[in-house]
Amino acid sequence: MNRIIRNVVLYLFIFIVLIGIISVFSNQNNQAEEYKVSDFVHALDNKQIESMEMRPSNGVMRIVGELKEEDKTFITHIPNSPAIVEDVTNKGMEQDILTTLEEERPNGWVTFLTTMIPFVIIFILFFFLLNQAQGGGSRVMNFGKSKAKMYSEDKKKVRFRDVAGADEEKQELVEVVDFLKDPRKFAAIGATIPKGVLLVGPPGTGKTLLARAVAGEAGVPFFSISGSDFVEMFVGVGASRVRDLFENAKKNAPCIIFIDEIDAVGRQRGAGVGGGHDEREQTLNQLLVEMDGFGENEGIIIIAATNRPDILDPALLRPGRFDRQITVDRPDLRGREDVLKVHARNKPLANDVSLKTIAMRTPGFSGADLENLLNEAALVAARADKKQIEMIDVDEAIDRVIAGPAKKSRVISEKERNIVAYHESGHTVIGMVLDDADMVHKVTIVPRGQAGGYAVMLPREDRYFMTKPELFDKITGLLGGRVAEEIIFGEVSTGAHNDFQRATGIARKMIMEYGMSDKIGPLQFGSSGGQVFLGRDMQSEQNYSDAIAYEIDQEMQNFIEYCYKRAKDILNENRDKLELIAKTLLEIETLDAKQIKSLFEKGRLPTPEELEEEARLEKEKAEKERQEAKARAEAESAKVERENDEVRVNIQSKQEDVQTNAPDSSEEPNPSEAEKEPENEEEKKND
Predict the structure, then answer these.
(1) Where in the sequence is the domain holding 503, given as residue range(s)?
(2) Looking only at Cα atoms, what is the longest distance across the chain?
(3) Residue of 169, 261, 290, 424 marked active site
(4) Which residues of 143-152 are buried (b: 16+ CB within 10 A; e: fewer)?
(5) pLDDT tens per residue, range 223-242
(6) 206 annotated as ligand-binding
(7) 348 closest CA partner among 399, 401, 398, 390
(8) Does the annotation flag 205 for ligand binding?
(9) pTM above the 0.70 mark?
(10) Residue 42, annotated as binding a ligand
(11) Are residues 199 and 317 in the same domain?
(12) Euclidean distance between CA atoms 303 and 258, whole angstroms
C-alpha cells in the first residue's frame, strides 16, 4: 500500500510540474500574428488599427493590437528608441487607439519555478532510469544481489502426498528431508548428506512440483531461483549473485537451494561456435566453486531441475556437486491413475467416469498433460451447463488435447470423406488383426486441427522395450491407411504423410540404433538423435562410410516394402470388414472401441442391450478391482503394524534385560566376603 501511495504522489507531482510548465511558457496571445515593423508602420499610417497597447519588455517596446478589417490580433516589437517611441505615441494618440502601460515585473515564484523545473525533470528522469536498470530495487548497488526467494511458511504448502506417480523419486527425496530433520540416524552408520540432487526428465513430469514438496516437508529454509536469474546484461553480475546466494544460505544452514532450469546457466563450457568466454561461463565457474571448492558448505543441499541433461557441463554432474541424479519420467499406467486421483479431488465426477480407463487411454501423458486433460473436461462440461463431468466430456477432452478441437463447420467434398473413411478404416482393420500393432481405440472422420480425420491408436499396454516383430507390426499399422486408399480407389492421396514420417523414423532406428538389420548387423551408427547442441554437435562428423549409408538406405527401403506388402495382404483378406467399417464411418462419423469390436466380430453395431450388459460387467469388474485394492492396502497396513509391534516388543525386551543385568548400586558388598576371596585363591594355589 505504501508503494502505491508513493507512486500516486509521484505521478501527481509530475502532473503539477507539467501544468506549471504549460502555464509559464504558454502565451496568452498565442493566437496573435507576429507583425514585421514595416507592416505595423504601414497599418498605423493607413489607420487600419482598431486599438493597441504598448509597454516596455526586455529592452524593446512590445505592441499588441487589433486590426479593423481583418478582426485579428497582432504583436510586434519596436526598438526602445526615444524618437521611434515618440513618433508611434503621437500617431496613436492622434487616432485615439494607443494605451501606454508600464513594464511588467516578473513574479518571483514564476521565476523560481522556471529556474528549478528543468532540474526537477532531469532528477526525475535519472531516478526513473536508475530504478528500471536495477530491476525495481531501491538501492544503487544491488545488481549483484541474489534474486532467490525464501519459501514462505504462510503460503499453501505442497506435500509429498500431493505428488503422485513418482513413488521412487519421492523416496529418494524423502531421504534428503529425513537427513535434514534427523541426521543422527544416518551419521550413526557413517553416511553423509548428499550435496546436490539433480532432477532430470521431460517437461511436465513434476520436477518443480517435487522440489516444492521438499520445501513443504523439510521444515528448513528453502531458497528458490531460476537459472536465468543469474545471467544479466552486466558483466560479473551472475557470479556476484551466486556468491550472495550461498552467503545467505550459509547464514540459514541447514537449508535447501532449488535452481530451476539449471541448463540456462550450467551449459557445457567452450561449446559456443566461436569458442568465446562469456558471462555465463563466469557464472558457471563461480557455481562450481561454491558447490565443491575450498569453502565449506555444511548443511546446504542444492536441488536442480532440467530437461536437457545432455548439455550440462561434466564438472557440474560429478559426485561432490550433484551426488544423486533422479530421473523423473512420464508415469506408467498405475502412476497416471494416481495422478488423475490427485487432480480430480476438487472436480465433481459422474459415476460413469473411470480414472483407470482414462489412464489406459492416455499412454505417454505427463502429469501436466493429465492435469490439463481434466481441466479441459471440466471446461467442456461447463460449456454444456452440466453439474458433473461425464465420461463423454473426458473423451472430448482427450480428442481436443491430442488432435485439437473439432472443425464441424469445415465443408469437405464427398470424395474426400470417402478417402478419409477408407484411410482410417485401413488403420482400424490392421490394428484388429495384428496382435502387436497399436489398438485403435477410436476412429473418426470429423476434421480436427489440421487433420481431415484421425484414428486414436494406443498401445495395448505400457512398454519399455519392443521386439523386432512388434516394431514391424507397428509400421504395418501405420501404413494401413495408405494401402487402403490404393486398394479401394486405385490412387493415393497426401493424407498419409505423417504415417510415413513415423514409419520411416521407426525403420531408421531399427537399423541405426537397435541393430535389428540382418544385413548390416548389430551395430549403431550416428548420434542418439537428441536435440542439436550448438557448437558441439555442429562439429561432429558422420561416423560411418558412404557405403554403409547406402546399405542403411537400402535396408530402410526393404523394411518399409515388407510392411507395405504385409498390410496389403491383410486388407485384401479382410476387404469386407474394411468396407463395412468405412461405410459405417460415413454414416455415423465416429466409432469407439466397442463399436469397432462388434463390427469386426459380428458384422454389426452393438445393440443397446449389449452395451448395457457390457457396461454392467465393466462396473462389476471395476468394483471388484477396487475391493481387491482396498483389501491389499488393508493387508499391507496390517503387516506394517505387526512389524512395528514386533520392533516395539524387541526394544522393550532388550530394555528389560538391560535393567535386570544391571548392578544394584544401593547394595554394598560384604567386607568379610571380600576378604575371604583372596584367601580362598591362595589356598587353591597351595593345594
Answers:
(1) 414-525+542-609
(2) 168
(3) 424
(4) bbbbbbeebe
(5) 888 888 777 655 667 788 88
(6) yes
(7) 390
(8) yes
(9) no
(10) no
(11) yes
(12) 5
